[in-house]
Amino acid sequence: MDLHWIDLLIVLVYVGGTIAAGVLARSSIKGISDFLVAGRALKTHMAVATMVSTGLGLVTVMYFAQEGFVNGFSPFLIGVIATIAHIIIGKTGFLVSRLRHTQVMTVPELYEVKYSRGVRLLGGSILGLAGTLNMCLFPILGSKFVVGFTGMDPSWVNPVMIVLLIIVVFYTLMGGMVSVVLTDFAQFVLLTIGFLLGTYFILTHPALGWDTIVNSLDQHKGADAFDPISNASYGWIFVVYFISISFVSILWQPEMSRPLSTENSEVARKVFWIQGLTSVGRAIIPMFWGAAAFAWTHLPSYTGAYANDGQSAVPEMLGQILPIGVAGLLLAGMFAAFMSTHDSYLLAWSGVFVRDVVSPIKAMMDGAPEKRGADDTWGGLSSEREIYWTRFFVIVLATLLAGFGMFFIDRLPETAFKWMYLTGTIYFAGAVGTVVLGLYWSKANSVGAYCALILGALGPLNFLIMSMLPDAIPASVLPFVENSNLTNLASLILGGLGMIVGSLLTQKSHPPRTVSFDGMR
């Protein structure tokens, strides 16, 4: 390895501290509320730090860096749109205030309160599937960063991935959301420093610098590197889709679990608008690193192994240009980012499978009444059994993720960023009808919810299947699965229309339920 022993020591100290935090947090877990939403006791500063950390995992750095490597500065627009949307959400309380006021622990829990247990079961299954598919790239991309940064042989990617997963599963099982919050705060501090230092050394490196990066992009990519509208990867369809998804994506369970963990809805709103201020930096800085890595691989003196690999070129570049100490600090921050995002996502998706799939099935078998409010005794699993099964699913999901990283990573359509949003849309498209309209439209009913969930999920799932089996697709159909932008936008529209049409046609046979928001400010 190329990493100095001082840098390795910094990383080892951080990893050891993380494991210790997970063990210590175990004593504070007294029920499923503590395990999944930290006892709903997060204050503003801690909730902001942990939410920013969840949205800035190592996988985020990697897929945004790949966008910068492939498309130059054009994807900077993504960060701008996300920031504006999150600030608006925080200031208006759109979705966030109402969801926090319901006191649900997972988003599909709202489905039973508002619609029916069957809707919750279907919605939880779709969310769990979308979340698992979305997370499939996390371990392998994180491992690629570590291998590229340290200069290890590429053959070490899979073993490193397995070791990282074992570490993150261990402390997630120990402390649940409490250990997640503790490690998130450390990640927030480390990555803030690492981002600033990494960007500084790129800009001041004698072989790189701003002018070299811009000139390299202009020479090799032309206008596509600077204009997102003319760039075939984006265009107006993508812009409209991303504006829409930026308001709905707050319903993503790993991120929504933070506002749901806050003291009250006022804190939840503050969390969104404060962390929204950081969204532009969280996107643009890794994208800039990716553009810099593209220029780095096109220098006459470049002799590395990743000239055409937008995922590994960035860690390779950083590992070579950062000085001793700074390299260890940044790698520790990236380790933190890897573990923080993984524990948050593993906990979120395991919680969804248990609370919104297993527990409702158990309640149906027991003949328990449907859940109609936050404090209802509705059957299902006890708090202790939910913790047990959540831990079980954490292990199962980690195993599936390792298998995907080892055997399916080379079959992905488009870039890693497009994969994230395509798989996320499997759930988001249905959430347009079930959650957005469900909270703000009095006529939303269970039939509309079923239509929204099914119609919204069909498009992205069909795209994934067809794009990963290109040899089985007729030539006349192939052009329709070469770009996901149209599929994603159409799915959002179908999800909303499914709720509207399905509800309006069945108002008498399936009267809408009312969710109370009394006392909400």
Q: How many beta-strand segments?
A: 0
- Compute the gyration radius: what is it? 22 Å
Rounded mean pLDDT score = 82
- Write the H/E string, N to C: HHHHHHHHHHHHHHHHHHHHH
Strand-residue proportion = under 5%
Q: Describe the biggest sheet?
A: none
First and last CA, distance = 56 Å
Structural class: mainly alpha
General form: globular
Low-confidence regions: 28-41
Offer a few descriptive terms.
72% helix; globular
Structure description:
- This protein has helices at 5-25, 32-37, 44-55, 58-71, 76-92, 96-102, 107-114, 117-135, 138-150, 157-204, 209-220, 235-248, 253-260, 265-276, 279-297, 313-321, 326-366, 383-407, 416-440, 446-468, 485-505.
- It is an all-alpha fold and 521 residues long.
- It starts with a helix and ends in a 16-residue tail after the last helix.
Give the arrangement of secondary structure elements:
Layout: H1 5-25, H2 32-37, H3 44-55, H4 58-71, H5 76-92, H6 96-102, H7 107-114, H8 117-135, H9 138-150, H10 157-204, H11 209-220, H12 235-248, H13 253-260, H14 265-276, H15 279-297, H16 313-321, H17 326-366, H18 383-407, H19 416-440, H20 446-468, H21 485-505
Please summarize what this structure is.
By secondary structure, this protein is mainly α. Helix content is 72%, strand content 0%. The protein contains 21 helices and no strands.
